[in-house]
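User: Homoserine kinase. Structure?
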Amino acid sequence: KEIKIYSPATIANVSCGFDVLGVCLDNVGDEMIFRQSEQKGLRIVEITGADLPLEIEQNVAGVAGKALMEQLNPNFGIEMIIHKKIKAGSGIGSSAASAAGAVYGINALCGYPLTNKELIYYAMQGEALVSGAPHADNVAPALLGGFAFIRSYAPLDIISIPAPKELYATVIHPQIELKTIDSRSVLKQTVGLKQAITQCGNLGGLISALYTEDYDLLGRCLHDEFVEPKRSLLIPNFAALKQVAVKCGALGGGISGAGPSVFVLSRGKQIADCVASEMRNIVKEADYQCDIHVSPINPKGI
Ligand code: HSE
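Assistant: Predicted structure:
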């Protein structure tokens, strides 16, 4: 028995939802293949597209997959092949795609004993390996689609939120690698009361805008008081890239996950394409390569 899956890229934080909000992209993702084997246990037999370890304990997909295998204890083994298309350290959930894909594929080969929501916990174990914190704001939207909101980590309480239908994301990935663990290490561990109030207002407004498809409100809420002031210093041309949203009439944007990718959300593809071309102009002269994706929101996840 063999199954092939597509594990999507995601934007974590979405500006004001640090560690508690993420959204699933539609046309960027990894391919993964899972096969039953006679030899029990989990093995990664091949990885293409990235120089990543095959050892289970050192691989995000391996750690997440093993955690699930221990829970399900199937009477067969599983071999996993990973074709990485999302670059590591890009800020669009590369490690999450591996972790979420691994648990989804294993669960599928076992006959779907767990729901995708139940799989999130196991996928988070993989995230912990690379980022130092088992955050769920990439793995949850990858497994559930649309927007995923983490109301609480202990106990885990995750709410799936549908995406407004005309919403598009433009994501630029400057090809410098920024590891989540490093990008987390620059953050302050405390926030001021005034900042917290502003952030709560924006996050509440953003959630409301998603349900009511109020694009103007959504745009007003795309601000971040907590991490952007620190992390933006690590991203070349950040202010100019974000400013493109205003020029094209987009809703707004910020840092995608831990960076260095920068995202802008737009109502409709035409504006999202304008954002992409203006971003391209900004980085034309730069001495580093960039990938730019324009994507609708993936409503289903893996
Ligand atoms: N919420 C996480 C962070 C996402 O910003 O560190 C990492 O992709």
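The chain has ten helices and ten strands. The first helix runs from residue 60 to 72.
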